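RESIDUES AND SHAPES:
===
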Amino acid sequence: MMLHPEIESLDRDGMRALQARKLAALGERLAASPDWCEHFAKAGMHPRDLAAADGLAHAPTMEKADLRARYPFPMLTVEASKVVRFFATSGTTGLPVLFGFTRNDLRQLSIQVARQLYCSGVRPGDRVYQGFGYGLWIGGPAHELALQELGTTCFPVGPGRSELVVQWVRELAWDVAAVSPLFLANLLRVAREHGIDPRKDWKVRMAIIGGQAVSRAFRDELEAGMPAGFTARNSYGTTESGGPNLGAACPYAHRRDEMHLINEDAVITELLDPQSLKPAGPGEVGEVVVTTLDKEASPVVRWRTHDLVRMAEKPYDCECGRRGMPTIGRIIGRSDDVLKVRGVLVFPSQIEDVVAGTPGTVKDAWQIYVDTVDGSPKSMTVAIECDAGHAARSSDLAGIVARSLSSRLGLKVPVECHPYGTLPRYEAKARRVLPKEQS
């Protein structure tokens, strides 16, 4: 079922024609901005060149440094007085970058995320715990707007207040949770500590999880701790793309651990090789690069997210019929977070796969500590926790994980097993790679 069948049922040629018309209109809007004209001039182009068939492919890319150089309101394409809300990037380092939203931008955001939620299986009348963060972070407000648009009953509690939330999940009979996977894992743990068995006492049938990459093994672990039939559907988006509006998992894509690029009529998503910036093909890994077509206040053109995903082997053949909205795999890492240790490329998601797939580990408590020389990792150590109820000795558990990592990575990695409750927990975006001195 589709919320907007007139858009979601377009074939790929129909979607590309729609994108081409919107790209030309975007170029006209950007042509009125001196900042944007200066940005395009770096590539010997003008914003109106976006109307050409190969205009986007030759346009310059953008990163946070481009916007921070124009602090505080970078590349704003409307008068500041027309901005009704600012959001900021949720990165863990550096000065946050502000993105403005007009009233129409917020309206379009609510429609885009409502489509995303509907694709994943949220329906009007559902009781939904909205557990993403608020403030300057876009996750919570965007989901709340979308849940209202969709006609659900929204409980906008946000993250935190775990002891109350685990009680309300049972007493208020929530159907759906929109929450980060780490906080959902935290809720499962808190529930058990308070005598609540989520598998028997909760009625939640689905979680919309996002805000960070999550391995298939970790997702399976979450589903195993919830009521029978429960699914944790991956979602994906960024502040720069206009919100949590990029990826959504229909039932078929979910089974393949994939997501649809569900708002291709509003956001063009390219998957590019991080080094050459050439397009990645089916089955290949590429960096997500986004261009917002409809955004009024703070559009982006070829914004480099540094998130790495794999294009599906058959991206346009999903059984749900969304042929113009290709499928991608889950986020497997970041191009600026990949570690090269003794000549071997290591993604944090590979570490998570092993930790989450090993009985006795605490699935949401692990770290990578690195020694660096001249900015490059010289060595790495993985820190894990032993679950409080696990009978094995910590040294035995560390050895099991170390052997699994060696098999997975082709690299011997020291593993430290810490007592339960000693490693950091994260309610939102986790910092998995830390300097050795923070261990």
